[in-house]
Write a structure and sequence with these properties.
The structure is a homodimer of 234-residue chains.
Chain A: E1 2-3, H1 26-35, E2 38-42, E3 47-49, E4 57-63, E5 66-71, E6 77-83, E7 88-89, E8 102-105, E9 109-115, H2 116-122, H3 127-149, H4 153-169, E10 178-179, H5 184-191, H6 195-207, E11 211-214, E12 217-221, H7 223-230
Antiparallel strand pairs in A: 1-2, 2-9, 3-8, 4-7, 4-9, 5-6, 5-8, 10-12, 11-12
The structure holds a DNA duplex (30 and 30 nucleotides).
Chain lengths: 234, 234
DNA sequence: CGGGCGATTGAGACATATCAACCTTAGTGG
DNA sequence: CCACTAAGGTTGATATGTCTCAATCGCCCG
C-alpha cells in the first residue's frame, strides 16, 4: 500500500453523507480530521487486510471498490460484503482483536486509515459519532437479515442487484448507463451460488426485460419488477 | 401481557453477565434501574412485538424463551433469532422507527421493559453502556456471518446445535441433561430448511454418536465432533 | 498473435424440498 | 380412566432446483 500526499478532509469529502462522518457536529468532524491523517492507495488485487490481522486500524473507502471474503466450511471463498466509496471496513470490530475476514481491492482503491485506539480514546467526546456507528451497524444487521430471507436463486440474484444498483445510485449523478464494479463470479460468490446458476438467472432477467445489461454495464433496470421477483413487494 | 409485581434489579439480576448491563459502572447500573421499572409476563404463544410496531420500548428476556421471525419471499415464517434469558430484543433498533420482525414467546416468558426514549436521552451519560451495545451488535453481526458460511444441511444443523447448546451452557449449572427449549420444526425454520431434512440430519448425528438426544433432551453431545461437521475446525 | 479471464451453454449428478402417510406423546374432556 | 385430538416427530417416494463438470466463446491485454 502506498501513502498518498492527499490529506483526508472529512468535512469536504465527496462521500461524507454515506460515511460515518455524516451528521456529526462541526467540532466532531474537526476531531475526526485530526485522527484520520492518511490515505493509502491499494492496487487492484492487493489486500487491505487479512483474517487474523490485529485490528489496529480500520478503513474507509475513499475511491474504488473492495470485497470482504471468508472461507466457507468447504474452504471456498465466499464474499461477505462489497465496500463502495464511503463504506467503512471493520466498523463492527471496534471491540475485537483480530479481523475475522479478508478484504481485497477489486479495482485500484484509495482508503482512509482510521486509527482505532485513538478513536476509542476520544469516543467519550464523540457522542454523535457513537450514534452514527450505532446506525451503521444497525443498518448492516437489517440488511443481512434481508439477504437471509431469500432462499431461491432468482430472489437472491434480484436482492443483490437491487442492493448494488441502489448503492451505486447514491453515488453517481446519472442512473444509467451504470457500470457494475463487480463481476458475475464475484456476485455469485456473494450469494453462495455457482456462477453458472447466477448467469442463467441473469439471462432470464434479460429475456423478461427486467434488466438490460451487457458486459457489466446496466443500460436500464426495472427496479419495481426486480423488487417483485425478490418477493419484497408483499 | 401482564405486569409482574417484581421490580427489575439489574445489579442483582441472574443474567446480568449476559445482558447489556454487564461491565457497566455502578453508577450506570443505578441509572439503568431507574429507567427499567417493569417486568411483564408473556404467555406461551403470545407476541412480544409485531412487525411494523413503533419502537417505543425494547425488551430483555428475564426468564423463558422467545423467537424472532419474519416472512420470507414466499410468505413463510422464517425464524431469525432465538432469545434466551439475558438476550435483548431490538437492541439494533435504537435508531429505527418500526420493528422489522415479529417476536413470540415459545414458553411462558418474563421480559424487562426498556423504554427507548429515556435510554436515548440518558445515553450521553452512559459511556460504558454505549460500548456494551456496540459489543453486542458486533457479536450479532459476527454470529450471523458464521451462519451464512454454512451451505449444506449437515453443517447448518451442526452450527445451530452448537449455537443453542453453548448459549444454554452459559446459563445452566450442569451441562447434561440439557433440555432444548425449541422444537425441531423451529430449528429447521431458523435454518430455512424443511423439518424432514432437519430430522434426517439429526438421525444421522445420533447414529454417528455425535449427539444423544431424545424428546428434546440432550443427554450428551460431542461438541468437538459437531464443530468438525460444521467445518469450523479448519 | 497468444494467453487468460469472465461469460455462456449443455448434460448429468446430487442434495434438498415436497408430498403423503404414520407414529408418538401430551393434553383434554367425558 | 379411557377415548379423542392436536402437535411434533419420523419415514419413504418422488419432484425439483441447483451444483458440478466440461466445453466453447468473446474479449481485453501483453
Amino acid at each position: 500500500m502506498k501513502t498518498m500526499n492527499l490529506r483526508p478532509r472529512c468535512s469536504t469529502c465527496h462521500v461524507k453523507k454515506i460515511c460515518f462522518n455524516n451528521a456529526l457536529t462541526t467540532e466532531e468532524q474537526i476531531t475526526l480530521e485530526t485522527l484520520i491523517t492518511e490515505i493509502k492507495l491499494v492496487a487492484k488485487g492487493e489486500h487491505i487486510c487479512f483474517a487474523n490481522d490485529p485490528v489496529k486500524r480500520i478503513y474507509a473507502i475513499f475511491t474504488g471498490i473492495a470485497k470482504e471474503y471468508r472461507l466457507d466450511n468447504r474452504g471456498r471463498e465466499l464474499v461477505t460484503e462489497f465496500y463502495l466509496p464511503g463504506n467503512v471496513i471493520g466498523l463492527e470490530l471496534l471491540n475485537k482483536n483480530k479481523y475475522p475476514f479478508n478484504v481485497v481491492a477489486i479495482k485500484e482503491t484509495a482508503v482512509c486509515i482510521i486509527p482505532i485506539e485513538e478513536i476509542k480514546k476520544d469516543i467519550v467526546n464523540l457522542q454523535f459519532f457513537n450514534n452514527r456507528v450505532l446506525a451503521l451497524l444497525s443498518d448492516k444487521i437489517e440488511n443481512n437479515a434481508k439477504f437471509n430471507l431469500m432462499t431461491d436463486a432468482k430472489s437472491r440474484v434480484a436482492i443483490l442487484l437491487l442492493n448494488i444498483i441502489e448503492r451505486l445510485h447514491q453515488r453517481v449523478p446519472n442512473p444509467y448507463p451504470l457500470e457494475l464494479p463487480v463481476s458475475q463470479v464475484e456476485m455469485s460468490q456473494r450469494l453462495g451460488m455457482s456462477n453458472e446458476t447466477f448467469n442463467r438467472v441473469l439471462r432470464k432477467f434479460k429475456q423478461d426485460n427486467i434488466i438490460n445489461i451487457r458486459k457489466g454495464i446496466v443500460f436500464n433496470c426495472d427496479m419495481i419488477a426486480l423488487r417483485k421477483v425478490a418477493g419484497l413487494s408483499r
